[in-house]
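Repro:
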Amino acid sequence: MKNKKKIITVAIDSPAAAGAGTQAKLIAKEYNLLQLDTGRIYRLIGKMRLDNPKTFNYKNIKKRIKRLKIKDLQNKKLLSDRVAISASIIAKNRKIRKIVHHFQVCMAYSPPKKFSGSVLDGRDITSIILKDAMFKFFITANINTRAKRRFKEYKKQYKKISFNEVLKSLKNRDKSDRTRKYGPLKKTKDSILINSTKLSRKQCFLKIKAIMDRKLYN
C-alpha cells in the first residue's frame, strides 16, 4: 500500500529484549504517533487459543481483530510466558499472519486524525508490513545484554526464573523468529542499524531522534 498521506511512518524490527518496544513508545510520544506493538496482537490471538480452544478458528479470529482496539493490547495477561509460547506457535500460521497484516497496515497508514503518523515494532515490519516507511530501523543488542535486560524485568515482576533459563529462552526465540517460513526476522538493506548493547534508553532514543530530525526538519 502506498503512503498517500503526508504522515510519518516508522518501522522497527528487532529480536526480543533489544529495547524496540521502549524506543517505539518514546518515538510515539516525541512525534505524536500511534504506537502499535505488533507482537501484542499475536499474543492476544495466542490467548484466544488458550482460553477457548474449541472455538479457535479463522472466522472468530477475523471477528476479534476486526473489533480490536489499541487499548485491548494493554492487558497485562498478554505478558505471561504461557501466552508468549502460544503466540509463537500461531505466528507461524500464514492465514493468521494475513489477518493480522491487514489490521497492521490499516493502523499504520490510517491512524486516528489526532496522530501525525504511526510507529510499529515487531519482527517483519520493515520487510513486509511497512516496506515504504519513512523511517526504517533495526534495533539489536548482543544476546547476553538482552538476557540481562529480560532477567531484570522478570525480577521486578517477582518471577522465579534463572538467568540461564532466560538466556536459553531468548536463543530459542531468536532461532524461531529468524527461521520461520513466513515473516522471518531479518534486517533489510534500507533499514538503519541501531545497536543498543552499550546505549542507555535515552542515548538510544537520542540517536534515533537525530536521524529522524535531520529528515523531518532539514
